[in-house]
């Protein structure tokens, strides 16, 4: 990455070759050769705001969280991979949920579950979930809208739910 463009807040790797980085420069940089060369993928002109985190959603789509709770959805990110859409979750219920959220998975492979609030801040994370169904205790979460990211075998499925 070019010097003088600021510091980097987050990097996400899609595989051994493809990765993206965000930071204070309002740019999203990408590499397709394992980090040897970084290219300016996108510019977010937002009055000097920093980009704080980046999350892979699906083929060519990332979500970027910036200062002040701004969330940007960027599509058509250039990649050289062609990943098929994979469904990891059969169902989440009840929606809205009060204290427990039930998740029914397609299989019992090892998964990571991350929950983000409306500002894009991670509020809960569970790793090494190897079950076909899970009752997730969400009683400590404030009422509101959340994004739940299920990640397994290099794929991610993002769903939303409401905590009442």
What does this structure look like?
This protein is mainly β and 164 residues long. The protein folds into two domains: 67 residues; 75 residues, Immunoglobulin-like (Sandwich), CATH 2.60.40. The protein is 0% helix and 53% strand. It contains no helices and 14 strands. A four-stranded antiparallel beta sheet has the order 1-2-3-4, with no helix packed on it. A four-stranded antiparallel beta sheet has the order 11-10-13-14, with no helix packed on it. A three-stranded antiparallel beta sheet has the order 5-6-7, with no helix packed on it. A hairpin with a 7-residue loop joins strand 3 and strand 4. The N and C termini lie far apart (44 Å). The relative contact order is 0.16.
Q: Give the percentage of residues in beta strands.
A: over 45%
User: Which descriptor suits the 3D outline?
Assistant: globular
Which residues sit in consecutive blocks of at least 5 with pLDDT less than 50?
A: 1-5, 78-83
Radius of gyration: 17 Å
Number of helices in the DSSP assignment: 0
Q: Assign the CATH architecture of the largest domain.
A: Sandwich
Look at the structure and give the CATH class of the largest domain.
Mainly Beta
CATH topology of the largest domain: Immunoglobulin-like
Q: What is the typical, i.e. mean, pLDDT? A: 78
N-to-C order of helices and strands: EEEEEEEEEEEEEE
Number-wise, the strands total 14
Largest sheet: 4 strands, antiparallel
Side by side, the strands of the main sheet go 1-2-3-4
| Structural class by sheet pairing and helices | mainly beta
Helical content, roughly? under 10%
Number of domains: 2
What is the straight-line distance between the termini? 44 Å
